[in-house]
Write a structure and sequence with these properties.
alpha+beta; Uridine Diphospho-n-acetylenolpyruvylglucosamine Reductase, domain 3; Alpha-Beta Plaits; five-stranded antiparallel sheet; 19 helices; globular; binds flavin-adenine dinucleotide; binds D-malate; binds zinc ion
Length: 506
């Protein structure tokens, strides 16, 4: 008879902040080939070149907050796959300052790249050539909180984990949570429409962002910073900025709907004999856990090898081809635990699950979550990571991992599949000691064709950024892309905002 190990639970916040920052510092140390060299097909647009007189003007607009030295951390992305050559980083503190900067850049036709925590995974947050980086690092003020309705208004540069800590003082929480929470900014989360591990419970940011303020390329401030739950007056313009990846405007403030912080959290970590079992357990968990189900993640055995070999993290259960992490959260611990225990008993007696562990104590919950949330970091230890983030119908979900494993064979160090299976979102990662054009040619466009054939999405949650923009047609029709280009031209006629990102060349 198999038994579940009862262990303990929550608060990932502090841990992740430390880990991610440390990891970011290490990854930026090695120097990387310039994006313009690695991707020779991309040509610099007809933009102005930053002169000393421009730097002086920026210094006048935001005294003491113009950086021109040691810009490596702003030029290189978190994955260490893209490296720009920006000579200037601007760090405004207010919407008015962002407006003045953009007005000046637009008049001089100077290209800019908005940057939050620089944790984006598609090369969208760093310059491709010499675009000026506009960082929201110093725009980190909480503006207001309405405790009754749970409505938070904050500047775009607030770090996700900091906001979560702040909200927990009021028994509230934030509807988005991801492994980069110690570094990513709310503005970056909204600009990428970040998904993460709470989407299953709270839905996407399209539903949770109540309002936002953004500055257009012209410097005009668009005030859509509503705090209302219901507002059907005219087009819902804020939605255009959610997921626009810095190409339509710079988001300067956000108003968010914040749910009650769950009083009780439990995590179950289960071994599965097949991917079909993962799906069967998911179906059962939806039926039996209902409203307390708050996350459903999966990892394959190759993911667990990454955790063990590259991160020195030990799994509480071993020797299964697949693992699932189920989180429940709610307001009455006893009630949730009873539900979870009943569910576990059922899936064990029906033979779906042979082994697993349950945690209700914060440290142990944290340890289990680390096995899943730190995989992105662990993969980087192999060298180069070819990272893909796709939506697929659940029946073909894992077939793609197997197809890539067969296709790449010994060309790569490993092919790893994990992700937010509860949202139909697969994270497929291949690694090799260093970037290889041969490996890349084997992956793309094959992988995108495969996804399009199954009517999936080539970007479930990370966006298109620089690296995936040319594949937009695999997931969007020609007419939709034409309309997107029209919107871009209306918002940013000189195309200074985050050029070479999201949309293919015009
Ligand atoms: P950045 O990386 O700085 O920027 C991302 C994009 O948004 C860029 O195109 C940039 O130009 C634009 N941008 C940034 N700020 C603004 C602004 N104020 N106005 C306009 N445009 C702006 N993503 C998920 O969706 N789900 C996950 O589970 C997840 N987990 C992750 C785990 C790890 C370890 C890491 C490193 C990343 C993860 N990501 C995940 C990706 C990334 O963290 C998210 O996309 C995040 O939302 C980016 O926020 P950021 O502040 O770092 O933005
Ligand atoms: C995650 O869910 O861990 C992130 O989206 C990062 C990744 O895809 O590795
Ligand atoms: Zn993810």
């Amino acid at each position: 008879m198999n038994t579940f190990t009862r262990c303990c639970a929550l608060n990932r916040t502090k841990f992740h902040r430390t880990v991610l920052n440390r990891q970011f510092q290490t990854t930026t140390r090695r120097l990387l080939e310039l994006t313009s060299v690695r991707y020779p097909n991309v040509k610099r647009g007809n933009y102005g070149i930053v002169k000393d007189s421009d730097v002086s003007e920026f210094e006048r607009l935001i005294p003491g907050r113009v950086l021109t030295d040691s810009l490596e951390g702003y030029n290189i992305d978190w994955l260490k796959t893209c490296r720009g050559a920006s000579q200037v980083v601007l760090r405004p503190k207010s919407t008015e300052e962002v407006s003045a900067i953009l007005k000046y850049c637009n008049e001089r036709k100077l290209a800019v790249v908005p940057q939050g925590g620089n944790t984006g995974l598609v090369g969208g947050s760093v310059p491709v050539f010499d675009e000026i980086v506009i960082s929201t690092q110093l725009m980190n003020k909480i503006i207001s909180l309405d405790e009754t309705s749970g409505t938070l208004v904050c500047q775009a540069g607030c770090v996700l984990a900091t906001v979560e800590d702040y909200l927990s003082n009021y028994k509230l929480t934030i509807p988005v949570d991801l492994g980069a929470k110690g570094s990513c900014h709310i503005g970056g989360n909204v600009a990428t429409n970040a998904g993460g591990i709470r989407l299953l419970r709270y839905g996407s940011l399209h539903g949770n962002v109540l309002g936002l303020e953004a500055v257009l390329a012209s410097g005009e401030v668009v005030d859509c910073l509503s705090t209302l739950r219901k507002d059907n007056t005219g087009y819902d313009l804020k939605q255009l900025f959610v997921g626009s990846e810095g190409t339509l405007g710079i988001i300067t403030a956000v108003s968010l709907n914040c749910p009650q912080k769950p009083q009780a959290v439990s995590v179950a970590f289960l071994g599965c004999e097949s991917f079909q079992t993962v799906l069967d357990i998911f179906k059962e968990s939806r039926h039996q856990l209902g409203e307390v189900l708050s996350a459903f993640e999966f990892m394959d055995t190759q993911s667990m090898t990454v955790a063990k070999d590259n991160l020195r993290l030990n799994s509480p259960i071993t020797d299964f081809p697949f693992y699932v992490l189920i989180e429940t959260s709610g307001s009455i611990g006893k009630h949730d635990e009873e539900k979870l225990n009943q569910f576990l008993e059922n899936v064990m007696s029906s033979g779906l699950v042979q082994d697993g562990t349950v945690a209700t104590e914060p440290t142990k919950i944290q340890n289990i979550w680390s096995l899943r949330e730190r995989l992105a970091e662990g993969l980087l230890h192999d060298g180069y990571c070819y990272k893909y983030d796709v939506s697929l119908p659940l029946p073909s979900f894992y077939d793609l991992v197997e197809a890539m494993r067969e296709r790449l064979g010994t060309m790569v160090t490993r092919v790893v599949g994990y992700g937010h299976v509860g949202d139909g979102n697969l994270h497929l990662n291949m690694t090799s000691p260093e970037y290889s054009t041969e490996v890349m040619a084997k992956i793309e466009p094959y992988l995108y064709d495969w996804v399009a054939d199954k009517k999936g999405s080539i970007s479930a949650e990370h966006g298109l950024g620089f690296k995936k923009r040319d594949f937009i047609y695999h997931s969007k029709s020609k007419s939709a892309v034409v309309l997107m280009k029209e919107i871009k031209k209306t918002f940013d006629p000189n195309m200074i905002l985050n050029p070479y990102k999201v949309l293919p060349d015009f």
